[in-house]
Write a structure and sequence with these properties.
With 326 residues, the protein is mainly beta. The protein is built from three helices and 25 strands. It has helices spanning 64-69, 176-181, 285-290, and strands spanning 16-22, 27-29, 32-41, 46-51, 54-56, 59-61, 83-89, 96-105, 111-121, 126-132, 137-139, 142-151, 157-162, 165-167, 171-173, 194-200, 207-216, 222-232, 237-243, 251-260, 267-271, 274-276, 279-282, 304-310, 321-325. The strands form six sheets. The chain has a five-stranded mixed β-sheet with strand order 2-9-8-4-5, with no helix packed on it. A five-stranded mixed β-sheet has the order 11-18-17-13-14, with no helix packed on it. Strand 21 and strand 22 (274-276) form a beta hairpin. The longest helix has 6 residues, at 64-69. The radius of gyration is 39 Å and the shape is rod-shaped.
């Protein structure tokens, strides 16, 4: 009778050692990534490199220092070029952590060993300052936004907003004083590191508003941001009602004056909430002389108002006269 004998054996993977020299563990990089290291194996192998599972082409190179130092993982016959290297631009990578992976493959393209290394795509170095407006500054007519910014490379630009509405930056200029104080930035890249814009805020509502300045990259991603609150205040003003006085008859005399530190103000007269339209404006030099802080014909050329109002249809008794300026 025929007889059979069996024996199980294991084909072992070649003894292999992978070393990743660069990037170092959790290294922070902003522009270029160098992948470099070496592989030693007791069999002829090939290697593949990946960044976030996207293959990169590695260059092989001789590393006699490695062959001399690493024993038990083959020699120059199985490791003629144990070194590998590749430098790539990482501008297109997102900010945050990324993974370098090195694979060693045997002659049948089976993965013998894998090694990985985490590095971080960091945001480029910047600095940003808003000089004006100052914090909670009170403004009436115009807003000046100014300050300075510093950047690591020319791929970064500046944006400015008021209440999230983008504002054009009117002027860039040199701030050598900043470069003398803040170190670590290239003076050629930052030759015009000051910025300023002046805008009319007469149409802005009274109250708080927010200035925002951003440094952004080529993709529009915000690298640095500063904000500043300012307050649009009501202009300083005065109203005086000369007439009417008590016990007026059917035709009521209306007169008085108003002063304001603001161009293009408008007076509104109301009787019991109903607007009076039949009045005239004119000069009141006596009012301007009395209140020197308003002494300006540009803003108070015709501060007086006067007229008559027919109140025949109104009942006897008390009535309210209101004067508004806007």
């Amino acid at each position: 009778r025929d007889q059979t004998s069996t024996r199980v054996f294991q084909k072992g993977k070649p003894k292999t050692l992978i070393n990743i020299d660069y990037p170092s563990i959790n290294q922070v990089l902003t522009s270029n990534l160098t992948v470099a290291g070496w592989v030693m194996s007791t069999a002829n192998t090939t290697i593949k490199g990946y960044i976030d599972n996207n293959e990169i082409e590695l260059s092989r190179e001789q590393r006699t220092d490695v062959i001399k130092a690493i024993k038990g993982y083959g020699d120059s016959s199985t490791n003629p070029t144990p070194g590998y290297t590749k430098t790539i631009n990482i501008d297109n990578l997102t900010y945050g952590n990324h993974t370098v992976k090195i694979e060693v493959l045997d002659s049948f393209n089976n993965v013998v060993q894998t090694s990985t290394r985490i590095f971080q795509k960091g945001k480029p170095k910047t600095d940003l300052c808003i000089d004006y407006p100052t914090s909670n500054q009170k403004l009436e007519n115009t807003l000046t936004i100014s300050g300075w910014y510093l950047r690591e490379n020319n791929n970064l630009s500046l944006k400015m907003f008021v209440d999230n509405n983008e504002i054009a930056i009117n002027n860039y200029y040199s701030r050598a004083d900043v470069l003398k104080v803040v170190s670590g930035f290239n003076s050629n890249i930052n030759s015009n590191n000051g910025y300023s814009s002046t805008i009319d805020i007469k149409t802005y509502s009274y109250g708080n508003h927010t200035v925002k300045v951003q440094i952004i990259d080529q993709k529009g991603i915000v690298i640095n941001e500063k904000t500043r609150i300012f307050n649009k205040t009501k202009p300083k003003s005065m109203i005086n009602i000369d007439y009417p006085q008590s016990n007026e008859n059917r035709n009521v005399s209306l007169s008085g004056w108003y002063l304001c530190k603001y161009n293009n103000t408008r007076v509104q007269i109301l009787i019991d909430g109903k607007e009076v339209t039949s009045y005239t404006t004119g000069k009141r030099q006596d009012a301007i002389n009395a209140y020197k802080e308003y002494e300006s014909y540009m803003t108070n050329s015709n501060p007086g108002f006067s007229g008559y109002y027919d109140m025949t249809s109104y009942a006897d008794g008390y009535h309210n006269m209101t004067v508004n300026i806007s």
